Amino acid sequence: MTPCSLRVTLLATVALLPCAAFAQGAAGTQAVTLPELDVVATTPASGTGGGGGQRIDKVPFTVETVSARQLEIDRATLDPTFTLARTTPGVSLSDGQGNSFRQTLTYRGFDASPLQGAPQGLAVFQNGVRINEAFGDVVNWDLIPSVAINRIDIVTGNPIFGLNALGGAVNIEMKNGFTWQGTEVSVLGGSDGRILGTLQHGQVIGPWSFYFAGEGLRDRGWRFESPSEIGRVYADLGYKSLDSEFHIIASGAKTFFGAAAAAPVDFTHLDDRAIFTYPQSIDTRMGQIQVNGKVSLSPTWDLQGNAYYRRFSQFVIDGNDAEFENCSRQSSFRGSLCFEDDGFQQGNLSNQAFRNQFLMQGRNAQRIPFTPGVPYGTLDTIRTEAESYGGTLQAVNRERIFDRGNTFIVGGSIEQSHFTYKSQSTLGIINPDLSVTTNPNNPAYGFVPGVGTDQLRTAAALGIAPSNAIGTNLYMGLFALDTFDVTDALSLTAGARLNFAKISTVDQTGFSPDVTGTHYFNRINPVAGLTYKFAPGLNLYGGYSESNRAPTPLELACANPDRPCLLPNSLVADPPLEQVVARTYEVGFRGGIPDFYGLGGLFNYKIGAFRTDLTNDILQVAVPGNSARGYFVNVPATQRQGIEVSGEYVSERFSLYANYALIDATFQFRGDLSSPNNPLSNDGLITVRPGNKLPLVPDHQIKVGFDYAITPLWRFGANLAAFSSSYYRGDESNLNPKLPAYYTVNLNTSYQVTPNLQVFGLVTNLFNSRHANFGTFLERTEPGELFANRFALNDPRTTTIVQPLSIYGGIRYVLGAAPAPMPEPIIRKY
């Protein structure tokens, strides 16, 4: 047996990879102490300040885990969603913006997305703090410092995590100086001009610890006008005594993306790097400080908690097409520029001759002349600012009851957010290269009066009108959870959480008084489940839970089809939306078999089934007659159900995993939805029937991968992820052909040149598969017309093609006593 010999506890629900090959990696001769049991967070505060979670063999929910080792394999991507998608059953990605750092992560048909307006169904926590942003509950994966991540757990069926945990909670545990010591520097380069550097340092001095991580990336993107710039820092100052542990944590990020959105199929058939109108840039900044702590009040009572302050700022510039034309012949304004939109009512217009037309006016109410042959557009800007603060406090008791093990948790949380949302549109022109500018003397069109010199002023009913809203969110929760060991084999869990939400918005423009309002939501969500250990390697789990999601401020302020939004640019009306309620059932078996078939390794497995029924689910739909505008609606019912099967084998030099997920995500009602650009719509409407599939959710997923130590110094691995076809967004009626099935293959390798120096490489999309993982529809040009006086748009489909074959290489240098890569298997979940 080596110093890093395998220690298997039969109660353990996670395999621990022997580290003989790894120990000669980053740290030379340092030994690694392997944990006896895997413990996962069952509440937001669990694990903050040094523990407080639950043994996984007593958790009646599904738990999927990604470790630091797995993230390290994919270090060239600097993107945790990439690792989650290639390893975790039920996880897929859809790229609505043409940039891998801003993809929507979908788990079991529920989204955690950076796109404003995407219905969010996963709660995401970083060190116990919910990082769904205040305004739209969006998740900005690009702001998370990936090199500082210690592990990521996806926990299903647990309402104790609060609002938005419809499909589960993603719990991201970060490193600190007690869990990681040494100094590590890595640099790499590769495809699309990518340059990346990371630094991390951790140390312990007596009862104190310190950890710092920084990372930066720049590339030009694999599509036109799609650069990426990322800068992120993270720091943790910790203190530990015999009965307490505290951490002060600060993090910050600044990112910039030329996110060019989906492109017409007519364009990508000619060049798969093609984009549509631009600029479409996103500039984001974030800063956060938090305090985590744990105090042992007695041998059986612990007190845990966290408090935080978060500042978020985002500025978006978006060039778009717009429906401008010569004013109506029936009016006295013939020859002036008007905006036309036939899809909704016009509010209190004094001149009925305009009907569906709105006069464009500049400063001093001057009319803007109409110039024939000019492809008018708008340059839209959006600024979102938010400040959030709050905390969670919980008490944990592990006192035995009737001489049986028992874990009782009781606590509460409070979060307050203040946000400002501003948008405006400036009249512009679409140039032959599809850029939108406000230059009044564009040589392609000559002098264009009024363009570039005036801000648009128009009727309040229009989504194109400026918006300026402020508001507050107040979220509070009380929760209790108890796990009781009825016998040595049987454990019962029961609990509940009370959620309260108050959402207030105030219109600052005078255009949209309906935006002003206050909304209240509350609900008690129960949870109950059991685990039963038939044998050391066979564990049954099952449970039932309920959870809810309050509508976001964006959804509440954009819910009226008669007063829609230029999504996501404007807020205009707020008929009340109902909160979403989810009811989840799941059952399964999991376990680990040591010395599998006498091979000396460990085999882990899981077989599970789940079903989640939702009432009042919220969808974003487009306005008939104008796809640029939309609104949010409740629909009666949707459902996600499926099965997951996974297994892994781990030996001293070889690791192999394989998993399969079936996800049946469907609508469970009959009704009409607006989808104006769907080529099979009826006057802009499509009919949804029970059993129709939710768009962009593949039914089938298969994932396979291995990692092999060819020599004690050289490691090599490969993985494959395959996804079945899915429907386009906007095709909820399932009448059009699907996005085709696709697969990707990735390779990774590393070689330990010296005990301190490692070279590594990563190849993504090995076979250069040019598939699309996102698709929707656009408005086709009329016969004889050209978009921007140059392009015919005959195909209504618009897609985002995934990143092509990319090759990266770099070096990693370690100083001091940095630990070797975590001696864990490729997949760690049981």
Short description:
This protein has 830 residues and is mainly beta. It is built from five helices and 41 strands.
State the helical fraction: under 10%
Report the principal-axis shape. Answer: globular
Beta-strand percentage range: over 45%
Task: State the secondary-structure class.
Answer: mainly beta
Quaternary state reads single chain
User: Which radius of gyration do the C-alpha atoms yield?
Assistant: 27 Å
| Number of E strands | 41
N- and C-termini, Cα separation: 25 Å
Q: How much is the average pLDDT?
A: 84
> Could you list the spans in which at least 5 consecutive residues all have pLDDT below 50?
1-37, 342-356, 453-463, 567-574, 818-830
Largest sheet data: 22 strands, antiparallel, barrel
Number of helices: 5
Q: What is the topology?
A:
Elements: H1 20-23, E1 39-40, E2 54-55, E3 63-67, H2 68-73, H3 80-87, E4 91-94, E5 104-107, E6 110-112, E7 123-126, E8 129-130, E9 149-155, E10 169-174, E11 182-190, E12 194-205, E13 208-219, E14 228-240, E15 244-257, E16 263-264, H4 265-268, E17 280-296, E18 301-321, E19 324-326, E20 337-340, E21 357-359, E22 376-397, E23 406-430, E24 436-437, E25 467-485, E26 490-507, E27 517-535, E28 538-549, H5 553-556, E29 580-594, E30 602-623, E31 626-650, E32 654-667, E33 671-674, E34 685-688, E35 700-709, E36 714-723, E37 742-752, E38 757-764, E39 772-777, E40 797-801, E41 806-815
Parallel strand pairs: 7-10
Antiparallel strand pairs: 1-2, 3-9, 4-5, 5-6, 7-8, 9-10, 11-12, 11-41, 12-13, 13-14, 14-15, 15-17, 16-40, 17-18, 18-22, 19-20, 20-21, 22-23, 23-24, 23-25, 25-26, 26-27, 27-28, 28-29, 29-30, 30-31, 31-32, 32-35, 33-34, 35-36, 36-37, 37-38, 38-41, 39-40
